[in-house]
Structure to design on (348 residues):
């Protein structure tokens, strides 16, 4: 089972990375934030829906049925992948001269990317893919902070699926299925957070850009400033109101604050990195995905020990305090990010 779980994660990780990249390929600069946010909706909704299905099916059909549920959803998607076209402009352009060379028997036709990479060796590619993400993180404080912050947010989000049964089961007497239904608040949170985020993108980013005003990458972080404050507020509200004498909707509202803010901050950070370091965006996204996965994996492991050692209130207070410390980091990045980028050897 452990070996199969390894292969599941190993072969599933490229799909998680390719989805957002494909949405970026097929949308223009003005609609890209909206397209990427739809990707975020499904990313946050996936574990919530999975918990709901598991809460109602596993008690009656056994734990193996949860694996069959994955097969039912993944099977048609695997077939669909066989018919999906490539979306990167570089790949489409690369295939065009190949057809021209084949039809004309003239080998002189080359794309710019072919000419630029003709002297690049396999060692150069491995360095670009495996070493460069860590080098940029180590030498650039702003990128290092965003990696740590996004990893912390993913860890807290994943640990909530461990905290929920602890709270809504023993405290409020809910069954596994009912606890899963409460997780629908994550989907509601993402949808509600989209309203102010889309409004800012439309009026604060797209409208000035169409009018010819040049915006800095730090201008994209403005929604993250507000969202960063709501995260610790929501965590504190969840931790300190999860009591039998307080209605279950109150701590659930705290989760809504935190989850909606998670999505907004992650979107802002991804856009910021892509605009600040476009030349190394692929490497940075790869390194950031690895950091998120590792820290989120740790979040699943320390959820129960944290609760057993400190209790729910103090444990959630610790997580809220960590997020509160990171609030200052977002404000520093917004205020001094341009100076840090100018000093970076990786700035473009």
């Amino acid at each position: 089972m452990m070996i199969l779980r390894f292969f599941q994660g190993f072969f599933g990780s490229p799909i998680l990375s390719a989805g957002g990249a494909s949405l970026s390929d097929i949308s223009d600069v003005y609609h890209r934030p909206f397209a990427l946010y739809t990707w975020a909706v499904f990313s946050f909704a996936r574990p919530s829906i999975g918990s709901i299905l598991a809460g109602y099916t596993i008690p009656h059909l056994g734990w193996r049925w949860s694996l069959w549920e994955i097969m039912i959803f993944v099977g048609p998607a695997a077939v669909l992948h066989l018919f999906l076209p490539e979306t990167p402009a570089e790949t489409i352009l690369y295939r065009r001269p190949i057809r021209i060379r084949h039809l004309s028997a003239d080998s002189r036709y080359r794309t710019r990317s072919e000419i630029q990479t003709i002297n690049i060796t396999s060692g150069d590619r491995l360095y670009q893919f495996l070493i460069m993400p860590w080098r940029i993180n180590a030498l650039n404080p702003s990128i290092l902070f965003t990696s740590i912050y996004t990893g912390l947010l993913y860890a807290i989000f994943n640990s909530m699926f461990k905290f929920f049964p602890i709270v809504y089961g023993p405290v409020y007497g809910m069954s596994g299925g009912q606890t899963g239904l409460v997780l629908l608040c994550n989907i509601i949170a993402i949808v509600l957070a989209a309203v102010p985020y889309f409004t800012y993108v439309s009026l604060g980013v797209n409208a000035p850009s169409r009018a010819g005003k040049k915006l800095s990458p730090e201008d994209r972080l403005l929604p993250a400033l507000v969202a960063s404050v709501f995260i610790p507020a929501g965590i504190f509200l969840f931790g300190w109101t999860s009591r039998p004498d307080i209605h279950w909707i109150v701590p659930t509202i705290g989760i809504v604050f935190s989850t909606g803010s998670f999505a907004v901050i992650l979107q802002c950070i991804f856009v910021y990195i892509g605009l600040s370091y476009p030349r190394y965006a692929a490497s940075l996204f790869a390194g950031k995905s690895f950091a998120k996965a590792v820290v989120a994996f740790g979040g699943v492991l320390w959820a129960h020990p944290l609760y057993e050692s400190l209790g729910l209130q103090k444990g959630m207070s610790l997580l809220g305090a960590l997020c509160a410390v990171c609030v200052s980091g977002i404000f520093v990045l917004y205020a001094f990010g341009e100076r840090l980028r100018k000093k970076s050897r990786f700035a473009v």
Q: What stands out?
A: The domain at 33-60+121-343 is CATH 1.20.1250.20 (Growth Hormone; Chain: A;). The first helix runs from residue 2 to 25. The radius of gyration is 22 Å. The chain has a mean pLDDT of 82.
